[in-house]
Amino acid sequence: MDIQVFESTDAAIWEAANIVEDLILNAGSVLGLAAGATMKPLYSELARRRRTLAPTITELHAFLLDEYIGLAPEDSRCFRNTIISDFASQVGLPEENIQSPQTARQDLHKECCRYETSLSAAEVAIQLLGIGVNGHIGFNEPGSMFDSKTRVVELSEQTRQANAHIFAPDPMPTHAITQGISTILKAKHLLVLAFGSSKALPIQQALKGPITTKVPASAIRNHSKVTVLLDAEAASLLPGC
Ligand code: GLP
After folding, report:
1. Is any atom of ligand 1 closer than 6 Å to the C-beta of 130?
2. In this structure, what DSSP letter does residue 131 have?
């Protein structure tokens, strides 16, 4: 595992953007996208590189990690809509090139199977990953099995508290569809980003603690190609940092 610690978040974002830019310029690639605050500066940096990305951006295909259940498809807080506004519309990626769990469908079990099958056929080259304050990846909450596939999950209290401000005064969704841990680990390369002091403990547990379902992100240590880009605060509990 390649763990890189940067003095600033901006420096880590620059490196992440270089890796994603290389992928996009390799025409016809498949990128796994993540929503959440961590990825926003990466998407802004890629937007600044729009002209460089232009020749191949329409040939990129993308898959989302997860999606809330219970929001109207046009709700701006749906992960799909935030990805379109923060990334796709900024870099010129056509919306139809983005696959995501369709959580408004009647039969969610069938939808999870459809999404899992699409992902298996697509072969994701790089999966972007943030980490939850409780060590989740996607919405695989503590206790998620490492062989889990795309499925409906209930969000933990900690996750709901961490994201409640996005929905206030409306209630936070209680459920989501997420790629499973085994689904995420099928990507050829995992690119993990974590910034700020709230991520120090989950990063320390994921990278240096026991590999356990209690810390879903610890599963990334079972993958052969992982790059972790951290700022100094997120790395503050790692030995030697
Ligand atoms: C969220 C999402 C993930 C995200 C992670 C970290 O709740 N399920 O896609 O990567 O948890 O979120 P954030 O970057 O907002 O801290």
Report:
1. yes
2. -
141 is catalytic: yes
Collapse the DSSP code of 43 into the 3-class scheme (helix H, G, I; strand E, B; otherwise coil) and give the result. Answer: helix
Map residue 193 onto helix, strand or coil.
strand
With tokens 């989950």, the residue in question is 202
Please choose, from the candidates 12, 80, 13, 4, the residue with its C-alpha nearest in 3D space to the C-alpha of residue 44.
13
Beta carbon of 191 within 6 Å of any ligand 1 atom: no
Strand-by-strand arrangement of the 151-154 sheet = 66-68, 175-178, 151-154
Write the Ramachandran bin of 68: left for phi over 0, alpha for psi from -120 to 50, otherwise beta.
beta
- CA-nearest residue for atom 13, ligand 1, is 36
In angstroms, the CA 119 to CA 101 distance is: 11
Q: Quote the tokens at residue 180.
A: 């499973």
pLDDT in tens, 45-56: 999 999 999 999
Using one digit for the tens of pLDDT, what is the confidence trace for 102-149? 999 999 999 999 999 999 999 999 999 999 999 999 999 999 999 999
The secondary element (H helix, E strand) that includes residue 3 is: strand 2-6
Index of the ligand 1 atom closest to the CA of residue 65:
9
